[in-house]
């Protein structure tokens, strides 16, 4: 579901930059890792934006920076128009109730020494939501809502499978009644059948609670199942964004074309041949000049301009795309 036209987005990120300082090697300072290098995005109430790209392109850094698990280098992130990056301690606590994050690794993200019930109640304790008996009752309800037995509250994380742990992580995020959940590869470590169950659960919860998801994945096949809109990231920047239908149906950036070709059933046209990109993505500590994708590009019209001039996102055929030759993408 998309926000009504004209309404301001619930979450808006503007020109977000996060550079990690690299450790000096043999006394010589190394260039910074440009993990996120000017990302803008919006997220409406009840909407899912899929953020997709290869490993290391900066997806997690976007999520962690928005939620202030780490400080940005520059840029803005606005929740209902209020800049998240300038919040003081009290306002930050209130913000954390509204924006929650669930993580890829359902094993690492739960404290092994905490019962499931205490883990789910932790946010309610921090935010002083309800009385102790009320919180216990709410934990039971949340467990049932995510498809688990209320009696599991007394157990420890090691007693559960990956899929069950991810459900516990979801219950934990829901406990403080957030409006936005940043889902960082929530199903990447799960079997395909379990993936589908967890994705269905996330969709049901979204509908019931008007939740907005920033859904991070490296795989278009997963994003396709949940996203209203898609933003494709390459080396710290968004190279294409638009409705899921457009981005999957008629991608304009050659990188999106390659990602989509790996998911034949994502294509709304007859199956296309799989495009295997040559080489690894370049290092974000030394991104290529011009278009960062030019070193792996297969666009027939690629030329000198791609090596020298960085393409900015521009509207074309219903999407925003950062490619000099997007008009003639095959
Ligand atoms: N704390 C850190 N210090 C230095 N570099 C970092 C740090 N965290 C991430 N990076 C680097 O920043 C870049 C982006 O990393 P990030 O984890 O955001 O990518 P990602 O798209 O989430 O990848 P993946 O799909 O593997 O999860 C990578 O080159 C990574 O090595
Ligand atoms: Mg990541």
How do the strands and helices of this protein lay out in sequence?
Elements lengths: L10 E10 L12 E11 L4 E5 L6 H8 L7 E6 L2 E2 L5 H10 E4 L13 H11 L5 H14 L16 H13 L5 E5 L7 H18 L2 E6 L2 H7 L2 E6 L2 E7 H6 L4 H8 L42 H5 L5 E3 L2 E3 L9
Parallel strand pairs: 3-8, 3-9, 6-7, 7-8
Antiparallel strand pairs: 1-2, 1-4, 4-5, 9-10, 10-12, 11-12
Helix pairs in contact: 3-4, 3-5, 4-5, 5-6
In short:
This protein has 10 helices and 12 strands. It has 330 residues and is α/β, with parallel strands linked by helices.
Account of the 3D structure:
The model has no long low-confidence stretch (mean pLDDT 92). The strands form 2 sheets. Strands 6-7-8-3-9-10-12-11 form an 8-stranded mixed sheet, with helices on both faces. Strands 2-1-4-5 form a 4-stranded antiparallel sheet, with helices on one face. The chain is of the alpha/beta class. A hairpin with a 2-residue loop joins strand 9 and strand 10. The protein has one domain (11-248): Rossmann fold, CATH 3.40.50. Helix 3 (116-126) packs across helix 4 and helix 5 (162-174) packs parallel to helix 6 (192-209). The two termini are 30 Å apart. Helices cover 30% and strands 21% of the residues. It has helices spanning 59-66, 89-98, 116-126, 132-145, 162-174, 192-209, 220-226, 244-249, 254-261, 304-308, and strands at residues 11-20, 33-43, 48-52, 74-79, 82-83, 99-102, 180-184, 212-217, 229-234, 237-243, 314-316, 319-321. The structure holds adenosine-5'-triphosphate and magnesium ion (MG). Residues 20, 33, 35, 53, 55-61, 218, 284 line the site of adenosine-5'-triphosphate (ATP). Adenosine-5'-triphosphate (ATP) is lined by residues 20, 33, 35, 53, 55-61, 218, 284.
């Amino acid at each position: 579901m998309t926000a009504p036209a004209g309404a301001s987005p619930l979450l808006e990120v503007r020109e977000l930059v996060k550079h990690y300082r690299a450790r000096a090697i043999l006394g010589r300072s190394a260039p910074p890792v440009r993990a996120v290098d000017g990302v803008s995005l919006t997220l409406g109430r009840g909407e899912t934006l899929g953020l997709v790209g290869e490993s290391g392109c900066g997806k997690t850094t976007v999520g962690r920076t928005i939620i202030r698990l780490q400080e940005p280098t520059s840029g803005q992130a606005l929740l209902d128009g209020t800049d998240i990056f300038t919040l003081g301690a009290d306002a930050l606590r209130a913000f954390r109730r509204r924006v929650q994050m669930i993580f890829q690794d359902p094993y690492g993200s739960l404290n092994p020494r905490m019962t499931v019930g205490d883990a789910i109640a932790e946010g309610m304790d921090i935010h002083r939501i309800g009385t102790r008996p009320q919180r216990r009752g709410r934990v039971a309800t949340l467990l049932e809502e995510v498809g688990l037995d209320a009696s599991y509250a007394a157990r420890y994380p090691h007693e559960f499978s990956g899929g069950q742990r991810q459900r516990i992580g979801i219950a934990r995020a829901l406990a403080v009644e957030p409006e936005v959940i940043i889902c960082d590869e929530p199903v990447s470590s799960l079997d395909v059948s379990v993936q589908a169950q967890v994705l269905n659960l996330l969709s049901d919860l979204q509908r019931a609670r008007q939740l907005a998801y920033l859904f991070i994945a490296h795989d278009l096949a997963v994003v396709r199942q949940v996203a209203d809109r898609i933003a494709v990231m390459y080396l710290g920047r968004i190279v294409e964004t638009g409705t899921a239908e457009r981005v999957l149906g008629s991608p304009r950036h050659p990188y999106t074309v390659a990602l989509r070709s790996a998911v034949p059933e994502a294509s709304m046209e007859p199956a296309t041949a799989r495009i295997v990109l040559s080489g690894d993505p370049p290092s974000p500590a030394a991104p290529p000049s011009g278009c960062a994708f030019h070193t792996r590009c297969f666009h027939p019209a690629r030329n000198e301009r791609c090596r020298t001039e960085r393409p900015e996102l521009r509207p074309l055929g219903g999407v925003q795309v950062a490619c000099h030759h997007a008009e003639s993408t095959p």
